[in-house]
Amino acid sequence: MTLTRRGRLLLLGAVGFVLLVIYLPLMVVVVSSLNADQTFGWPPSSLTLHWWKVAAASQGARHAIATSVAVGLVATAVALVLGTLASFALVRHRFFGRDGISLLIVLPIALPGIVTGLALNSAFTTVMGVGLSLWTVAIAHATFCIVVVFNNVSARLRQIGGNVEEASLDLGASRWTTFRLVTLPLLRTVLLAGALLAFALSFDEIVVTTFTAGNGVETLPIWIFSNLFRPNQTPVINVIGTVLIVVSFVPIYFSQKLVGTSGGRL
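User: That's the sequence. What structure does it adopt?
Assistant: Structure tokens below.
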């Protein structure tokens, strides 16, 4: 479809407006992290790196970051294993109820976080009788992190088909050898992309975490929310928010690059 010059300008203007609405608040947070005014005055009277030093020295922030990283790594590892296994089961095999199972796997990421958190809280504390801890948070995060791994791996498996694997088996290789030397290299980039996306999802999750975290378990988003209304913590929160923006952007950027550069190559 060919657009007129006026149509192109209107389309570019609409895209620019959407990007402005999305990213202007983020830029405000970034600039505020350099604001020398502790009362969060706007526009900033002057810029400073003082609050970055204060944030780096914050014991609570460091502990919260370490907790979020630990939860994210565990959730990502679980999601990689279960998401990949589910992808092979549903893409490589045909059986009754396959579409229904696929829907059930994808459903957690579509459900409101408060519903997922409430359901998991009841499952852990009432049904299973398990105390809430760091592990319950990691398992809870894995329920929706599985989806991004499952979607990435399923798409790649459909793309490569089964001919390459069948050829390897016909040449005498075992199923394990075929998986290790043929299938896994073809899935390597999408697995890494799925892991990056899963970690990013886990790292900034707050709603499900609130319902599944035990006493003393404080991830970075929960720490930010707890300190949000403390005036003396506002500059530090702006710094942590800027770090979160970067941490969220980097894995998503590289996952897109990985999928994009390998999408057409077997």
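Residues 131 and 148 are 28 Å apart (CA to CA).
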